[in-house]
Design brief:
Length: 738
């Protein structure tokens, strides 16, 4: 253990029993853990109030003398209640304590004693009372100063749990602060460099910790929070800056395409011109690929902004240099879809070495877990010989048997669906670390990109290509206005009659294994059970059956979901793409990458069961051609409920960045920092990635400068230990994997 008192185990300070509860139920093991467990909010005892003027339902503080105190029993002698009447000359007030508290306070609250009493005023039997008030008894010689100090003090309220109360945590914090104060905080490290504290005018750490737990004023809380936010932002950004520095020190093969190769030929055959955004992002990517250290770039773009085209151009550029490119997709449906669209975009250039193929071309192979043994063997052979320049696949690409001739670029689609370990395993298949491009269609606010993806440079595609149509989105309140739902199915019919196609999306697949789902109403809307419980989410199989027999009778309705055999999934997608299916009833397998320009309408059932970003992704499947898109969000959520507010927000804007902010504000901060990928609780306590953009951006600049000047942080031992404690083992590993 280091000499830093913040690293001391709590049991030495608060005793074994309390320490065990704090550890097991709150995850607090050391003095530092406890002092970084900040108050959730602060209660104010309020101004002193005369008893004659007590307002009901408000928190008050009174100074009064005890006139009488009586213990009474109730419930046939089983319960005990202590009733204390206090008076200040202008009126009287009853204080009540029940059960154990009645016994605990009886010996202190005796007639004649004067004290300060604080709590919420309620009325019982037409008498104003305070139940279980806070109080402090005053000695005869204590005057106005003591009264003021008690009344105006801000009381910290801590995140607590059933096993330990906020009050008990406050007592433990007090003990810790007293013991540190007694030694003048000797040995407590300062993670922030002195120069940074000085230029940013930040309080020293001991002062910040004192003020966050024992504020005299609201200004104290602000001073403390400002300093502690910097600690969190800076330490996290230092971890990411070190990660970036380590990456840039790795060797990689520079990949600069020649002037008359595959990429030039592909660009020449494109039937349209690239948008300004696509050109700019491509330049950033090719500049990275030309360096002798691995590219680590996040390509985020709105749904339909042409990310796949940008990624394909990068892959073709790498193939031009004799290397290979692998594109990793999260699902088989998406891998097949990418394979189909890449080979279509490339045309004869995707038939290298085949009859009718271009001399400049290369092979594009698909590799998924469900391929036949023969097809799989062929694909593996093409990869190891270098015959295939591009491979598109699922996590099957990561298996040991897969060997590459010269892997130069890895493109990962939809990063948030792909574990960091898998990304790492694929990178390990190259002789030297390959370049890495991560694509996501989920718009990520700048600050989240700087924290969650802080080891990646970011490129943003925010311009839609010409020919993309607007999408109108409407909420359909199925419970309040059933005729709106009937009209939704009429609209689907109208789209099909106009030569277009539609999606209907449901939250679950639905079969006997999932349990009986209760009675259903017309068009796939189940009636809520009488017991008031929330009914199960609507299911693809039942909804498709009801639609085909009811409101969409006569149309070609098919289903698509994750439990279908891969060949069956591919067959349905191929027929839907070819226009042989009118309505596709599906789960969220259609959420990303599916591209059918003729599909113009989407009905999302139980839309309130999906997240904001997910709804935005789903909606992006329509309006991909010349005809306008229509998205209908069907929900039984009551008007003005948080769920309906969310849906109204989605209907109100097509701006994915705006929606991602809304999504983020509604979720806990910990979710944002990849908790699912690291398994640990969030390391952020006062920093919020949405509101503290300026702090995060400034901390990133400061951290980059510190790491550039001293990569091993030898001159910053306290910062090194803060790095170790703030980022526990799981988060370290998460950052390590990139």
């Amino acid at each position: 253990m280091s000499g830093n008192p913040l690293d001391e185990e709590l049991k030495k300070l608060v005793g074994d029993r309390t320490a065990k509860v704090l550890d097991e139920h709150m995850g607090l093991r050391t003095v530092g853990d406890l002092l970084h467990h900040y108050p959730r909010r602060y209660a104010e005892r309020g101004e002193l109030t005369r008893l004659a003027d007590l307002p009901v339902d408000e928190y008050v503080t009174v100074v009064a003398q005890i006139a009488k105190a009586d213990k009474r029993t109730y419930g046939g002698g089983k319960g005990v209640r202590l009733e204390v009447v206090v008076t200040d000359g202008s009126g009287s007030l009853t204080l009540v304590f029940f059960s154990k508290a009645a016994h605990a306070h009886a010996h202190r609250l005796i007639p004649g004693r004067r004290g300060m009493f604080s709590g919420k005023v309620s009325v019982f039997n037409r008498t104003r009372q305070l139940a279980h008030p806070d109080y402090q008894l005053l000695d005869a010689d204590e005057g106005e100063e003591a009264v003021d100090a008690f009344a105006n003090r801000l009381i910290p309220l801590y995140p607590a749990c059933k096993q330990i109360t906020s009050w008990q945590i406050a007592q433990a914090v007090d003990t810790a602060l007293n013991s540190l104060g007694a030694t003048g905080w000797a040995g407590v490290g300062e993670p922030l460099p002195a120069a940074l504290r000085s230029t940013r005018d930040l309080a020293p750490l001991p002062e910040a910790l004192e003020k966050i737990h024992r504020p005299g004023t609201k200004a104290d809380i602000e001073t403390a929070r400002r300093r502690l936010k910097w600690d969190e932002a800076f330490v996290l950004q230092v971890a990411l800056a070190r990660r970036r520095a380590d990456e840039s020190a790795l060797p990689a093969v520079p990949r600069t395409p020649g002037p008359d190769g595959l990429l030039t030929e592909f660009d020449r055959k494109l039937p349209f011109t690239l948008t300004a955004g696509q050109r700019k992002v491509s330049e950033e990517i090719f500049a990275d690929l030309a360096t002798d250290h691995p590219m680590h770039r996040l390509l985020q773009g709105e749904v339909g902004s042409g990310k796949t085209l940008v990624a394909l151009r990068a892959m073709l550029g790498v193939v031009d240099t004799g290397g290979q490119a692998a594109m990793l997709a999260p699902t088989e449906v998406l891998a097949q879809q990418h394979h189909r669209s890449v080979t279509e975009m490339m045309g004869e250039l995707a038939q290298g070495g085949m009859l009718g193929g271009s001399d400049l071309g290369t092979k594009v192979v698909l590799l998924t877990g469900s391929m036949s043994t023969a097809a799989r063997r062929r694909a593996l052979l093409d990869l190891v010989t270098g015959e295939a320049g591009i491979v598109i696949g699922t996590h099957a690409l990561i298996e040991d048997k897969v060997k590459f001739h010269d892997l130069g670029l890895v493109v990962v689609d939809e990063q948030h669906r792909f574990g960091v370990e898998q990304r790492d395993a694929l990178r390990a298949k190259a002789g030297q670390p390959p370049h890495l491009l991560v694509m996501t269609a989920t718009p990520i606010p700048r600050t989240v990109a700087m924290t969650v993806f802080g080891d990646l440079e970011t490129s943003v595609l925010d311009q839609l290509p010409a020919g993309r149509s607007p999408i109108a989105t409407h909420v359909v309140p199925a419970a309040e206005k059933p005729h709106f739902l009937a009209r939704a199915w009429e609209r689907v019919r109208e789209e099909v009659e106009g030569g277009h196609q539609a999606y209907v999306v449901c939250p679950r697949i639905g079969d006997d294994e999932e349990g009986a789902a209760g009675q259903s109403g017309q068009g796939g809307r189940k009636k809520a059970p009488d017991d008031g419980e929330r009914r199960p989410p609507l299911a693809v199989l039942e909804t498709a059956e009801q639609l085909a027999a009811g409101p969409l009778a006569g149309l070609r309705v098919e289903v698509l979901h994750g439990r279908m055999a891969p060949d069956a999934k591919d067959d349905v997608m191929r027929r839907f793409t070819a226009g042989e299916v009118d309505v596709l009833v599906a789960t969220t397998v259609v959420e990303v990458g599916v591209n059918v320009p003729n599909a113009t309408a989407m009905v999302i059932m139980d839309a309130d069961r999906f997240g904001v970003s997910q709804l935005h992704q789903l909606r992006g499947r329509v309006g991909r051609g010349a005809a306008a898109g229509l998205c209908l969000l069907v929900s039984e959520a009551p008007e003005a409920s948080p769920a309906r507010t969310r849906l109204d927000a989605v209907a109100a804007t097509l701006d994915g960045f705006e929606l991602s902010r809304i999504d983020l504000e509604q979720r806990r901060e910990g979710d944002v920092l990849g908790q699912a990928q690291s398994g640990s609780r969030s390391s952020l306590r006062v920093l919020t990635v949405i509101d503290d953009e300026e702090v995060i951006a400034a901390a990133r600049d400061e951290a980059t400068a510190v790491v550039a000047a001293d990569p091993e942080l030898t001159g910053h031992p306290d910062l090194r230990s803060a790095l170790e404690s703030l980022l526990d083992a799981d988060r370290e590993e998460f950052l390590e994997k990139g």
